[in-house]
Specification:
Blueprint lengths: L10 E3 L5 E3 L1 E6 L4 H10 L5 E8 L4 H9 L6 E6 L4 H5 L4 E4 L11 H20 L6 E4 L4 H12 L10 E4 L1 H15 L10 E3 L6 E3 L12 H12 L1 H8 L7 H18 L4 E8 L7 E9 L2 E5 L8 H26 L2
Parallel strand pairs: 3-4, 3-6, 4-5, 6-7, 7-8
Antiparallel strand pairs: 1-2, 8-11, 9-10, 11-12, 12-13
Helix pairs in contact: 1-9, 4-5, 5-10
Length: 335
């Protein structure tokens, strides 16, 4: 254990005298580049009573010390090494898996999967051994394959609940609505563009036909928009001279965490996530998910006004998605 600050309260009173429940959140891989960004954003979240940072990097103590310099009511604990993983996870309501490299141009999904699979395998096995499964959000790439792999590992233990396992895809929705708003001179925060399918350039499907507010776009404009949304990781990486997107991805993780914690507190919430779902011709699918304290309730479905072009790119996405899911499970079968 690296840093500890005592915080015994589990309840706080809001300005309207209602009781607000607080939660423990654990960031696995918290010393990585994106892990530090996620931890920073979560440090002062009012719904968090304890923030736990775990990593195997030797720089972890320094990261936790830096975070301790930020004034916050929540407790802060840091853990270093695989041997402390059980301690780090214990008592957590929400666990975010953010360690490992993110996808960058020139790196195949298979190579990215190989780089991150040991991290996800180790953490998933430890989560499976907990007496009660917390909400788990996978940010590590490639989500399309790592989430099914994590699920198969956790199924070996008695506490697994598929409703509590999420691939965090909020960044896809953030990008789509921002690009849509910018394109049409609208406030992005007032725009909504559903993004479904998976979480990769070949499986991300923004639905302009369901966008709000509605606007007129030519077929050429729509195809250009879809291509740009799908290529955003590449665009950012090129601008960052080969480094992956981190700040916007971390913000997406923050929004996911807020939604998950709201659901755990008993409020109806929605998150953008990749979850176990067999209603779309594949065993996993991403979209706008309705969540309560038990986890996933249902995913928003769009059956009206889907265009022929959107149906076409969705079919292509589903074909690739099935392969991505199989790839994640195949690695376990080969061992």
């Amino acid at each position: 254990m690296l840093v500890t600050r005592k915080f015994s309260n589990i309840l706080i009173r809001s300005s309207i005298n209602s009781t607000v429940r607080l939660f423990q959140v654990c960031v696995m891989g918290g010393a990585s580049e994106i892990g530090q960004a996620v931890s920073l954003l979560l440090r002062t979240e009012p719904a968090i009573s304890k923030l736990v940072i775990h990593d195997t990097w030797e720089t972890t103590p320094g990261v936790v010390i830096e975070l301790s310099h930020i004034p916050a009511k929540s407790a802060l604990k840091g853990y270093l090494g695989d041997a402390t993983m059980k301690q780090a996870l214990g008592g957590s309501d929400l666990v975010l898996l953010v360690g490992g490299p993110l996808k960058t141009p020139g790196v195949s999904d298979e190579a990215c999967l190989k780089a991150n699979m040991e991290f996800v395998k180790t953490v998933s096995s430890q989560i499976g051994r907990l007496s009660k499964m917390p909400f788990v959000g996978v940010v590590a790439e490639p989500i399309n394959s790592l989430v099914p792999m994590a699920a198969e590992l956790m199924r070996n233990f008695g506490t697994f609940d598929a409703r509590k396992l999420f691939g965090v895809t909020t960044i896809d929705w953030i990008r789509a609505r921002t690009l849509f708003g910018t394109l049409h001179g609208l406030a992005p925060e007032r725009c909504f563009v559903p993004v479904i399918g998976g979480h990769s350039n070949k499986t991300t499907v923004p639905l302009i036909s369901q966008a709000s507010p509605g606007t007129d776009m030519t077929d050429t404009d729509i195809r250009r928009f879809v291509s740009e949304v799908q290529r955003y990781d590449e665009i950012v990486s090129e601008a960052k001279l080969g480094r992956s997107a981190t700040v916007s991805v971390a913000y997406g993780a923050l929004l996911f965490a807020r939604g998950a914690l709201a659901a755990l507190a008993g409020r109806q919430a929605r998150v953008h996530a990749y979850v176990e779902n067999d209603h779309f011709g594949t065993s996993y699918f991403a979209g706008l998910v309705h969540v309560d304290s038990n986890g996933v309730r249902e995913m928003t479905r769009y059956t009206n006004r889907i265009t022929e072009y959107e149906c076409h790119i969705l079919e292509e996405a589903l074909d690739r998605l099935r392969k991505d899911v199989a790839l994640g499970k195949k690695i376990l079968e080969a061992e």
